[in-house]
Amino acid sequence: MAAAKRPALPVILLANDLLDGDVVFAAGDANGLHWSRDPGAALVGDDDATADRLDAFAAAELGNQHVVDAYLVDVAIEDGVPVPRHYRERMKTTGPSIRRDLGKQAELPLAPAFLRA
């Protein structure tokens, strides 16, 4: 069986928390990875080694039933923040498009690029 095609670099890893369904992002450093609800804190995989590390973290977390629907998303770096290139993932990072007073856009200081339509 062929491996799934990886999106173009750079990438971030997003998933849904298994207990509350909220979108979470793999964040961390050389000491380890963890889940964050802040899209600006997402670890950017800008090389194959980091993307592989994010893939391995996704597999482990799916296996441990901490998250569901974990996948790599291609991003652009705007204002120093990773912003998903595709509309679907951008919506997942911010929250409802019709209510800017709800979701992550109301709770977190997001880069303007996150909030453009």
From TrEMBL:
Pfam families: DUF2849 (PF11011). This is DUF2849 domain-containing protein. It comes from Bosea eneae. The lineage of its organism: Bacteria, Pseudomonadati, Pseudomonadota, Alphaproteobacteria, Hyphomicrobiales.
